[in-house]
Every structure is written in structure tokens, then in C-alpha cells.
Amino acid sequence: MAALEDPTEEALMFFGVTLSGLLRDHPDLIEVIAHDVAETPKLTEVMSWVMEDEAIDPSVWARIESLSEPSK
Questions:
Q1: Nearest CA-CA partner of 48 in 7, 5, 28, 39
Q2: Which candidate, 7, 61, 55, places its Cα nearest to that of 30?
Q3: Which residue, 6, 40, 52, 54, shows the most beta carbons closer than 10 Å to its own?
Q4: What is the pLDDT of residue 55?
């Protein structure tokens, strides 16, 4: 979690690319990730770095997009 206190762009990109691969292969993880984002709003920034990938299920991609938007 230390990387989330003051993340560099490189750290955010690493986390985003890692999540892209995980969600491509394990789309059910989006529920766990959504819970984590709700608990730790700072993760919204990480979600904005997840790269769009045609292999990610469209419904999962829609969740990624919604999780990458700051709460109002």
C-alpha cells in the first residue's frame, strides 16, 4: 500500500497493466476489485490506468470505466 501514498506514473502504469492481464484471464475478479475501490477510493486512480483490451469482456470493461471515475 505504500506505493499508493504517493504513486509515480510508473507505479500506476504497472498496476494498471497488471490488472488488465488479470481481468482478461479472470473477469470475476472485477467484483473483488470493485469492493476494494469502494473501501479505498485512492484506487480509482489505479483503475484509470487499466488499458483497454479487446480480450476483456465488455461488461467488465464497463465496470472498469465506472470504477475509474471519482465519486461525487
A1: 7
A2: 61
A3: 40
A4: 92
Report which residue type is found at 68.
S
Contacts of 41 (CB under 8 A, 6+ apart): 70, 71
CB contact at 8 A, 50 and 23: yes
Instruction: At 22, list the grid cell.
Output: 488479470
- Whole-structure pTM value: 0.82
CB 57, CB 27: distance < 8 Å: yes
Give the DSSP per-residue string, the chain.
-HHHHS--HHHHHHHHHHHHHHHHH-TTHHHHHHHHHHH-TTHHHHHTTPPP-TTS-HHHHHHHHHHTSPP-
